[in-house]
Q: What sequence folds into this?
């Protein structure tokens, strides 16, 4: 299931705005909708041959399954980090969410572009060479459903004042709303990468 470029641009124009201030309910609705769409996209991948899912356009590029596993490795970090943040938050929900400077920076960096810019991947988040199979898709779907449950719980706290740890530094924390925005942007980036790997297989003729 491919997302139309116009739909993708509209969503990210909504989710990302510098110094954004947005109704909390509106943000949550958009994030939930995107996660649900990504579950459908992942389900559609399960109908493809394993050979297609393992195809690499170049020796140093990732296959579709490796793209999905990369997202799973990030999910392994962010699911418990978000759960902990929600459980320890003493805040009350606010009508509006205000994106932070650091959060906006990370979201902007992750936004998919026509030609995906290369970014250095942390060694523990690099799936290349891993022993993976089609089960990584089911794991991704399970993680997205877990994220949906956490977002539901987050309705009871303040998404601006509640902070979460991030994977690249113990010194930096993101606003919970920014963490949600980062996750959907990161997912979109690598789902597009996975779909392009599949398209490359179709055009390779092999």
A:
């Amino acid at each position: 299931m491919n997302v139309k470029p116009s739909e993708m641009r509209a969503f990210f124009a909504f989710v990302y705005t510098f110094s954004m201030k947005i109704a909390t309910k509106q943000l949550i609705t958009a994030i939930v909708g995107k996660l649900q769409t990504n579950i459908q996209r992942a389900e559609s991948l399960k109908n493809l041959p394993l050979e297609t899912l393992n195809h690499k356009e170049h020796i140093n590029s990732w296959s579709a399954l490796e793209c999905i596993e990369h997202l799973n490795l990030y999910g392994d970090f962010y699911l418990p980090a978000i759960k902990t943040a929600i459980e320890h938050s003493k805040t009350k929900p606010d009508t509006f969410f205000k994106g932070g400077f650091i959060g906006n920076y990370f979201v902007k960096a992750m936004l998919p572009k026509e030609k995906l810019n290369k970014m250095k991947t942390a060694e523990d988040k690099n799936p290349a060479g891993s022993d993976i199979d089609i089960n990584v898709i089911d794991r991704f779907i399970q993680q997205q459903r877990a994220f949906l449950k956490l977002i539901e719980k987050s309705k009871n706290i303040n998404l601006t004042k509640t902070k979460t740890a991030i994977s690249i530094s113990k010194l930096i924390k993101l606003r919970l709303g920014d963490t949600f925005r980062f996750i959907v942007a990161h997912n979109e980036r690598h789902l597009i990468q996975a779909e392009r790997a599949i398209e490359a297989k179709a055009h390779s003729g092999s």
Summary: DSSP finds seven helices and four strands in the chain. Helices lie at 5-15, 24-45, 50-53, 64-88, 101-110, 135-153, 176-204.
